[in-house]
Amino acid sequence: MTACVPSDALGRRVLCGTEYATVRYVGSVPPTAGIWLGVEWDDPQRGKHDGTYEGTQYFRCRHPRGGSFIRPNKANFGVDFLTAVKDRYGLNDQQDVQHGTETTLVFGKKTVEFVGMDSIAEQQRQDQLNQLVDISVRECAVSHAGQKEEISRTCANIRNINLSKNLLSSWETVTAIASQVQNLETLNISENKITFPSTSTYVSSVFSKLRILALNQTEITWTEVLLCAPGWPALEELYLTSNNITVLERPDNVLQTLKSLDLSDNRLLDGNQLHLIAHLPRLEQLILRNAGLTSIHFPDAGFGCKTKMFPSLKRLAINDNKISEWSSINELDKLPSLRSLQCHNNPFTDTEKNPETLRQLIIAKISQLEVLNKSEILPAERKGAELDYRKIFGNDWLAAGGNWNPEKNKPSEEFLAAHPRYPALCLKYGAPEEGELKGRQPLTLKNQLLTLTIKCPEKPEQKPVEKKLPESMTIQRVKGLLYRLLNIPGSELKLSYKSSKLEGREVELDNDLKPLQFYSIENGDCVLVRW
C-alpha cells in the first residue's frame, strides 16, 4: 500500500467532494501506472461501470453503473471523533492560531510578555470540552475513534451523540467510540453504511445505559439487530427506518425494555411479521409508515375480545400502507391498550369520500381510541360517531338476523365479522328504534351538501368560518366537528342558527340526534356557536 492509503482501506467509507462511497478495491489497474481505489458510490448515477475495466472484473457493485476508479488523493478517509468535535465546536488548536492568541502587550515603549498563555488557552478548551453533554458531529466525516481513552479523558460528561451521515463503516468503530463514553444515553448513527456482526458477540457493558438508538439507513437486518441487542439492556427507543427489512424474528430475552419501535419505510413481507414482535412486554409505540402492510390480523381473539398481542401498545402509526379492507380497522379494536392511531393514505380510506364520515367510522369501530390522525377525540364526538354508526347499519343488522327481542337477536357471523362492535353499541345505547331506521340513506350515497357560515358570538375577534356539511349530518356530529375546527375546550356546546327567511329570529339546534335537514337549514344560513 502507498503512504496515502490506510492499511485497512478495503471496505472503508470515503468522501469524494460531496459524494459518499465504499472502497471495494485497492491496487493497480493495468495498463495505467500507480495505485487506484475502486469505489462503489452511494448514488449510482455518479458511477461509470460495475467494477469491470478492459474485460477484467476488479470488484462488484449492486448497480451495473455504480462503480468508478479514483486516485487515493481524491478520497477523504475521514477524521477521528475528537478532531470532529473540536472542529464543530471551534475548540481546536488552529482556531487560536486563526484568531491570534496574544502573548505580549505593549505599554508605551515597554513590551510585557505573558508567560503561560498557551497553557491557559488549552485549559479553557479542555474545560469547554468537559462541559459538553449533547454532541452533534453530523456530516463531519468521522471515520474512527482516535487514540485510546482520549475521548473519555477529554469529554467526560457526554450523554447524547449524533454521529449521523459520517464515514463509519463498522459496528466495531461505533463500539470503540461508545466505550469511552461512560454515561451514553442517546446515540444516532443513521445514514452510515455499517457492517454489523453476523454472529453472536461478546456482551460488554459499553451500551449499558443507552436508552435511545437510531439506526436509520444503515442497511442493518433484523437478524443483526437481535445479535447486537443483548448489548442494549436498557434500550427504550429503537429507530430502524429505510433498511430494507422484510422479515422479522421473535426477540427472545432481548429488547424487553423497548417502549418505542420505528420500522417505517421498510418492506415487511406481510402483516403476519408483526406477530413475531407482538410479545414485547413494554412496547407502547409502534411506527409502521410505508411498511408495505396489506392487512392486520390478531387470530388469537374473536369478535369483541381483546388480543394478548401487544399488551402495552398505546400509539400505532400505519400511514401510507396498502391496507384495503375495513376488517383490519376492526382488528385494531382487539388491542387492549390502543389510544392513538394514525392511518392516513391507505386504500380503505378511499371507500368513503367524506373525510368527516370516514373519521366517524374509525372512531366507532375502535372503542378506546382517544386520538385519531393527531386530532383528539372528545366525548361528544365519540358519542355522535357511535350513535350514527348504530343507525347507519341498523337495517343491515335487522337483515342479518338482528332483533329488538334479545331472545331472537342472532345476527349472522358475516355481519359480526363486518361490524364486531355493533352488539356492544346496542348494549351501550339500546338497539336502534324502528323509526330511526326508516328512510335511512345508504352510507355510500352522496348527501346534499349545505354551505354554512359558523360564528362565535362570544368571541367576536374570531373570524367566521365557511363550511360545507352534509344535510344528513346529526347535530351531535356537527358539535364534534366544531370542537376540533374551533379548538374549543371540552365544554358543552350550544348551537343555534339564523336564516334570512326568519327575519333575525334564532332557532336552537337542541336535539343531538336530529340531522341538519330536520331544522330546515338551507345554504347560506349562519350557525351560532356558544359554550
From TrEMBL:
Residues 27-71 form the CAP-Gly domain. The keyword Cytoplasm applies. It comes from the Eukaryota. InterPro entries: CAP-Gly_dom_sf, CAP-Gly_domain, Leu-rich_rpt, LRR_dom_sf, Ubiquitin-like_dom, Ubiquitin-like_domsf, Ubl_TBCE. GO terms for cellular component: cytoskeleton. Residues 450-529 form the Ubiquitin-like domain. Tubulin-folding protein; involved in the second step of the tubulin folding pathway and in the regulation of tubulin heterodimer dissociation. Required for correct organization of microtubule cytoskeleton and mitotic splindle, and maintenance of the neuronal microtubule network. Supercomplex made of cofactors A to E. Cofactors A and D function by capturing and stabilizing tubulin in a quasi-native conformation. Cofactor E binds to the cofactor D-tubulin complex; interaction with cofactor C then causes the release of tubulin polypeptides that are committed to the native state. Cofactors B and E can form a heterodimer which binds to alpha-tubulin and enhances their ability to dissociate tubulin heterodimers. Interacts with TBCD. Belongs to the TBCE family. This is Tubulin-specific chaperone E. It comes from Chunga burmeisteri (Black-legged seriema). The gene is Tbce.
